Amino acid sequence: MQTKDIAALVTGGGSGLGEATARALAADGARVAILDRNMDAARAVAQDIGALAIDCDVTSADAAEAALARAAEAHGPARILVNCAGVGPAQKILGRKGLMPLDDFRKVVEINLVGSFNMLRLFVAGAADLAPLASGERGVVVNTASVAAYDGQIGQTAYAASKGGVVGLTLPAARELASMAIRVVTIAPGLFGTPMLRALPQDAQDSLSASVPFPARLGEPSEYADLVRYILSAEMLNGEVIRLDGALRMAPR
């Protein structure tokens, strides 16, 4: 898919992987809508790249539907959805502070998995009726999982379960949406230099970097965005989960 003049939605586009993706798509000529709860960050990025910032709770059917309607009114129906909104708190099932509250587990799954599916289904509702592009496709969805889906660490039960769900969603969604000419691909990033990791002390960042076989560093959000761009251009890439992790396999702790 060529992205010039194509409407694109990026959830979590106010920072981190989402911000890098929004910037890359805008640089390629896409009409980008940034969907985020942090409106100060979203507006700052949107103003810088000529995008639209929209407040959106990805877990809410009504709020997400309203956000997509506003984006479509401004940019036309979207053909690209990149789901980057997510949370990653660490919490043990039974730790020093006691038993993990069920609502804490539920919140992570609700945002990371249910939110991704919610945005996907609403995106499909609009994209399925669009005329096919020259490539024959109508749209592309890129979801964000994590290497934690495969080798989650102690304290990552909620996060790993939610991202494992995103991995499991990929193939059946791609198979179902193939008849509508909509592709679904998932990226499973390793350790990336998002604001959360960059806020750690330098010695902690160095330790994390050393755990990556090659290159022995934190990934740059722009590298995630570059993979999104490639996925959009590679029409045969569908129903796949791509690890972007420098051959990292995380230890138990």
Automatic annotation (TrEMBL):
Pfam families: adh_short (PF00106)
Keyword DNA damage tagged: no
Gene3D superfamilies on file: NAD(P)-binding Rossmann-like Domain (3.40.50.720)
GO molecular function: oxidoreductase activity
KW Oxidoreductase (keyword) present: yes
Keyword field: Oxidoreductase
PANTHER family named in the record: 17-BETA-HYDROXYSTEROID DEHYDROGENASE 14-RELATED, SHORT-CHAIN DEHYDROGENASE/REDUCTASE
Family listed: Belongs to the short-chain dehydrogenases/reductases (SDR) family.
Stated name of the protein: 3-hydroxyacyl-CoA dehydrogenase
Species this protein is from: Rhodobaculum claviforme
